[in-house]
Amino acid sequence: MTVTVEIVETPVAAHMDSGAAQNAKIAQSPLAIRGLTVTYGEKPAVFSVDMTVEPGQMTAIIGPNGAGKSTLLKAALGIVPPVSGRVTVFGRSLAEQRARIAYVPQRASVDWDFPTRVIDVVLMGLYRELGLLGRVKRVHRVKALDCLARVGMADFASRQIGQLSGGQQQRVFLARALAQGADLYLLDEPFAGVDAATEKAIIAVLKSLREAGKTVVVVHHDLATVTEYFDNVFLINTRSIAEGPVAQAFTEETLQAAYGGRLATSQIDQLAKV
Ligand code: ADP
Ligand code: MG
C-alpha cells in the first residue's frame, strides 16, 4: 500500500529562525517590551507583557481602568522597577537611549502648587542642552517659545502654570516634550478632561510629529476616536490582549477580551458605526 504525502512549500520567512526574526523586529522597534511583569503589592499590575511599537506610527494603548496602562509606560521609562522583563529602545538599552524619549505623564499625577512660569516648564525639556546649572540663553528661550507656539500657547509664556486650565497645562507639557527633540513620544491620557479645541491642537501636533518620522504612543481612553487618530492599537488588561493595525486588532472580539463584561454590547455596536 502506498501512502502519498503532500509536500507543501513553506515560504522563505518560515525557514528563518523565529528567534532571529524576533530579534530583527526588536532591533527596529522604537520600544520593544518582552515578558514585563510589575507588581506594587502581591498582585501584578502588569503581567508578562510583550509589546512591539512600530516605528514612525501612532499607537494607542487601550484598556479599562486599572489595566496597567500607566504602569506599562512607567516601567518602559524605568520610573517603576519591573519584577522581570526586558525593555529595548531603538534596539538598545533604555539607559543608552533615554534622551530619545519624551514623556507626558497623566495630568492628575502632576501637582503644580509651587510657582513656576509656563516658559520655565518648557525650558525643562531643554535640560540636556542646558546641562546641570546651565545658563538659559536667548537661543533657548526662542526655542521654548517656538514649542509653545506649536501648541498655541505662546501668549501664556509668562503665566504661572498653576493658573492655567487643565487643557492649557496639557498643551504646555506637550511643548516641553517637543523642546526635548525626542524620537519617541509617550503620552499618558493627554485628552482626558481637555476641551475640544485642545484635543484638536494636540492631535494636530502628534500627527505633525508622525509626518516628521517620529513615533508616538498614547494611552487613550476614548474608544470612539481610535480609528480616526491611530494607526495601531495595543490592548491590555494586566496581560497583553491584542496588538496590530487598528483594522485588525481593534475589533469586537479584542475589545470584549480587554474589557470583559465592563463594556456593554451597545457601546460596541456604537463603535462599529463610527
Ligand atoms: P491604568 O493606567 O490602566 O488605569 P495603572 O497602571 O495606573 O492602571 O494601575 C494598575 C494597577 O496597579 C491598579 O490596580 C492600581 O490600583 C495599581 N497601582 C498603580 N499605581 C500604584 C502604586 N503607586 N501603588 C500601588 N498600586 C498601584
Ligand atoms: Mg493610567
What does this molecule look like?
The chain is an alpha/beta fold. It contains 13 helices and ten strands. The strands form two sheets. Strands 6-7-8-3-9-10 form a six-stranded mixed β-sheet, with helices on both faces. The chain has a four-stranded antiparallel β-sheet with strand order 2-1-4-5. Mean pLDDT is 89; it is low at 4-12. The site of adenosine-5'-diphosphate has 10 residues, from helix 3.
Instruction: Identify the strand order in the major beta sheet.
Output: 6-7-8-3-9-10
CATH class: Alpha Beta
Q: What fraction strand?
A: 15-25%
Low-confidence stretches: 4-12
What general outline do the C-alpha atoms trace? globular
CATH T-level topology: Rossmann fold
Q: How many strands appear in the DSSP assignment?
A: 10
Largest sheet properties: 6 strands, mixed
Distance between the termini: 60 Å
CATH superfamily: P-loop containing nucleotide triphosphate hydrolases
Keywords: ATP-binding, Ion transport, Nucleotide-binding, Transport, Zinc, Zinc transport
InterPro entries: AAA+_ATPase (IPR003593), ABC_transporter-like_ATP-bd (IPR003439), ABC_transporter-like_CS (IPR017871), Metal_Ion_Import_ABC (IPR050153), P-loop_NTPase (IPR027417)
Family: Belongs to the ABC transporter superfamily.
GO molecular function, one term: ATP binding
